[in-house]
């Protein structure tokens, strides 16, 4: 195991990882063979079954791991010019996959969206940070990868100012894998702040039919379960609950 992966493991303080590891009764996560093959094909690199998996993995921790790729983590304060090494900000990777192929350590950062869309501003902020994280990295020792996962292929993603390694230069677009969702999912939406109403609707369609067939429920907060007229859903007053 490379020093980089050793560092990634001991720096991993993300609560969801440790919570699920305890709940699932396993010593650690193991990547599914089917997903491993799919991701490996996308990146054109074989992924071993014992690859390290992290959740909500802080980009600062990745920065530290790659900066000390050939040595132990220091036990004394180290220089942090311009906060490049450690920024103490909330940017993270939804999923991290790290593994060694001979003498090369591959670090795969995966971002995911379900029924919400991708936005350029947050992606650009992450690209800016990752550019700094991997600048000066020994390319003979560490190879970074970046992948988006969502039910539909994203479009109109501006990669103009992304580092070359973050996207597919042939397509001029992010590398992408499909993220299947269960057939039936619902989301809660509400009216104005003082309307006292909340709708629960299928995420499969952006607009409910006139008769409300795609709506799971329409609850009035005052009566806790009464069903008002669905023919007048007042869609213009809805705001997504995120």
Structural class from helices and strands? alpha+beta
State the end-to-end distance.
Answer: 40 Å
Q: Overall 3D geometry?
A: globular
Q: Order of strands across the biggest sheet? A: 1-2-3-4-6-5
Whole-number count of domains: 2
Radius of gyration over C-alpha positions, nearest whole angstrom: 22 Å
**Assembly annotation:** single chain
Largest beta-sheet details: 6 strands, mixed
Stretches where pLDDT falls below 50 for ≥5 residues? 205-242
- Overall number of strands: 10
Task: Work out the helix count.
Answer: 5
Question: What order do the SSEs take from the amino end to the carboxyl end, as H and E?
Answer: HHHEHEEHEEEEEEE
Mean pLDDT: 81
The percent range for strand residues is: 25-35%
> Into which percent range does the helicity of residues fall?
10-25%
Question: What this model shows, in words?
Answer:
- The chain has a 6-stranded mixed sheet, with helices on both faces.
- The protein has 2 domains: 3-178, no CATH class; 186-240, no CATH class.
- It has helices at 3-11, 15-24, 33-43, 59-67, 120-134; strands at 52-58, 92-101, 104-112, 142-150, 167-168, 173-178, 186-190, 197-202, 215-220, 239-240.
- Strand 7 and strand 8 form a beta hairpin.
- 22% of the residues lie in helices and 26% in strands.
- It has 5 helices and 10 strands; from the N terminus they run αααβαββαβββββββ.
- With 242 residues, it is α+β, with helices and mostly antiparallel strands.
């Amino acid at each position: 195991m490379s020093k980089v992966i050793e560092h990634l493991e001991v720096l991993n303080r993300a609560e969801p990882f440790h919570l699920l590891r305890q709940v699932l009764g396993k010593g650690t996560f193991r990547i599914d063979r089917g997903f491993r093959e799919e991701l490996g094909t996308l990146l054109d690199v074989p992924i071993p079954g014992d690859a390290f998996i992290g959740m909500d993995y802080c980009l600062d921790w990745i920065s530290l791991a790659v900066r000390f790729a050939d040595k132990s983590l220091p036990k004394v304060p180290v220089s942090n010019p311009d906060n490049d090494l450690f920024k103490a900000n909330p940017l993270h990777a939804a999923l991290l996959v790290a593994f060694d192929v001979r003498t090369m350590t591959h670090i795969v950062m995966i971002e995911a969206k379900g029924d919400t869309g991708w936005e350029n501003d947050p992606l650009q902020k992450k690209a800016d940070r990752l550019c700094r994280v991997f600048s000066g990295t020994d390319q003979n020792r560490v190879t970074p990868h970046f992948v988006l996962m969502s039910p539909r292929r994203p479009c109109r993603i501006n990669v103009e100012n992304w580092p070359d390694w973050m996207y597919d230069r042939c397509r001029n677009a992010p590398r992408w894998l499909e993220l299947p969702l269960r057939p039936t999912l619902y989301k809660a939406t509400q009216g104005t702040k003082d309307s006292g109403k909340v709708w629960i609707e299928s995420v499969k369609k952006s607009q409910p039919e006139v008769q409300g067939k795609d709506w799971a429920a329409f609850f009035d907060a005052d009566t806790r379960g009464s069903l008002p007229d669905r023919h007048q859903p007042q869609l213009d007053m809805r705001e997504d609950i995120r």
